[in-house]
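User: Show me sequence and structure for the first protein, then do the same for the second.

Assistant: Starting with the first protein.
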Amino acid sequence: MSETPERLLPHPLTGQLFASPVPPGTGWPEDPAAPDTPVAHTARQVRELAATAQDVDQLNALCSVCSACERLVEWREDVAERKRASFAGEPYWGRPVPSYGDPHARFAVVGLAPAANGGNRTGRMFTGDRSGDWVYAALHRAGYAEHETVSTAGDGQALHGVRMIAPVRCAPPANKPTPEEKATCSGWFDREIELLPELRGMLALGGIAWQTVLAATARMGWEVPRPRPKFGHGAVAWLRTPDGRDIRLVGCYHVSQRNTFTGLLTEQMLDDALALAAAPVE
């Protein structure tokens, strides 16, 4: 981080002044943490703290102040200080981005990591970039989101029956977390899946999300097909939890601009994959 004096900027919705990155418990909309929320500094501490969470709200608070990956901490905070020119007049969240949505979700949308000038700026997953616009619009068309569009945390959006989860909670350089960073963050991911007892389906946005889900559920003792199913758009894999729930995992091309601009992923394709992931399980 730089040695320059802290500069406070107004939140784009509330006008309240914040530093970048935003200190926990200072009034940012939807901030789950408090000033005294325990901070994980190592992969071991991530797993130890995650195990103490009794619900997804507690887990969100803990993961939103995590500092276990030095490279990611430096990157997310550097982006928050330097800012993209078009957002130079507003504060950046600049912390790990918590999961978002219904704590009693029956299906989950699994991505990869927050965008540097998207979730890392707004403080909410899939909010503030064009990829997120596609996801929320699809959820709205299917009746799972209150609003078709989003802007930043605190804009009135709400999800019903669905939860958004990222295997990596901090924005990584070049959108590429290292294997070690993914392994460290897996403590938060695994515990979140454990805290969603009504889960029946998962939509994996991209091959990394698909592989992450298969690896996580194997670690957690779920029944996972062997050999592990290959990712593909519309691919389906059935997983079984230790308590006997069958979970449908559905693959979907990622909502990256490269995929949506070229037509590799269309709105109809996304809608169909989402509907399959959310369909009732007998």
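Switching to the second protein now.
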Amino acid sequence: MSAISTPPLAVVEENLPNARNSRRTTKIRGVRAGFWVYLGLGVVIVSAIFPYYWSFLIGSGDATTINDPNMSWLPGGNFIANALSVVNDPAVNFWLALWNSIFSSTVIAASVVIFSTLAGWAFAKLRFPGGKWLLAFVVATMAVPMQLGVVPLYLLFSDLGWTGQIGAIIIPALTSAFGVFWMTQYLSQTVPDELIEAARVDGASMIRTFWTVGVTAARPAAAMLFLFTFVGAWNQFFWPFIVLDRQSPTLPVALSLLQSNYFVDYSVVLAGVLLATIPLLILFAFAGKQLVSGIMAGAVKG
């Protein structure tokens, strides 16, 4: 009888982790979402889409649609006419308001990302006296309501002659305490100190280290901060309503003029609301995939 040959112990030990990893991968790939997961996701999706559908349903009808007890759940055929009423309304000044919203939101979001990344890098990776107390003070300013500073801020811009100008809503929002805190936490957890020390040993200056290491690592968090800041600046109503006039409004302020009459046609109002939402949907459609891929890349690297 021929003896059965057995593999050496070293070969078995070498292949054992691979076999375990393959079985673990097979188990992970074999996990499927259950019924309750799909049900929960369906409820979330319907809850998110329903307000838009309701706005489109009313916006595609006429002035009597919102008060009709027998209203059909199928859209009507007046949405284009109602949208043209918003666009062509001289009191709204739609195209100027759209440009003001796009310009101001883009400048504010870009400025917040730049200054927050610089400040976050300083708080996270630089050591200077009073750094922790200064960061605590910046975070504490988030607890102060914006309404408390409206009166002195308006008096300041009035003395400077900037009321009614688009710069009056851009300058106060160039920095963000939340953005500084967000980038500080992200950079402190993502960038190891050894990487910075290696760059300094290689002769890189602090600016060079920040540009090659910090900016590269901060891209996922910066993309999220830009997106959220853009949406927040786009939807801002209180301060633009106070400091801007009707000749140069932002889009939310311009759309509020549709409700200034004695009779409010909600089909026209909701058609205008949907028009103001379209640029945000386009932004999420183009930036959503890159945003998610950037977040996953940052998570893997971290």
